[in-house]
Amino acid sequence: MNYLLPMHAYRTSGRVNTLDIADITDYTAGHWQWWDKAKQAKHPIWTDPYFDKGVGDIVMATYAVPFFYKKQFRGIATVDVQLEILEEKVNQGIDVDLDLLIITNKGDYVYHPDPKQILANSIYKDAKKYHQNGLKDLADKMIAGKRGVVQLDSWETQQKQWVAFYPIQNTEWHCPESSGESCFSSGQKERAAICRSTTLFSAFNHYYRMASDRPDDSAFSTFDRGC
Q: Which segments of the chain does DSSP mark as H helices, in order?
């Protein structure tokens, strides 16, 4: 016998509210990453960004953790993170001379300095738009899980720039960060990129843990169970 307990809890104006999302959507229907992908993976996953219509009504990503009883799958516990909050945290953690993106394994933007690009654009679309084969090659390297530092022509200014790229731990996301040719000496580039990336994503992981323990106005938590 199957049964579902899809309780969605969120905080609004200092008050915790709950919502039964089974009244809105069948999340076991096969098109929700936070359920299907986590169930199949059997380990925690981050979803690609999506608009949570009818529940949160925000652009967000979900951290989903499958749980088991006597080695049998019993459900998914989740925390939803509004990407606007991620944008604020990223903006607080980077240098003004640094351009930074976060992309999914498909190349879609999770973070972009222009929020309108999230869900609407990807690094592959930009490579095609600006006729930048080097940018496409960079995207291919990132999605293959590689890390490093490369020099590219800026796809907007045509000036030379250095781009450090690396996978983000515990996600299927990747981060390219670029700075102008004049910003660093050649011996400083990789060390500076590693230092900034470590600081930035330590802060992001700290924010996630806070959201997991104590959801606020824009971080939602859901408990779903199926047998």
A: 33-41, 83-93, 123-129, 133-143, 189-213
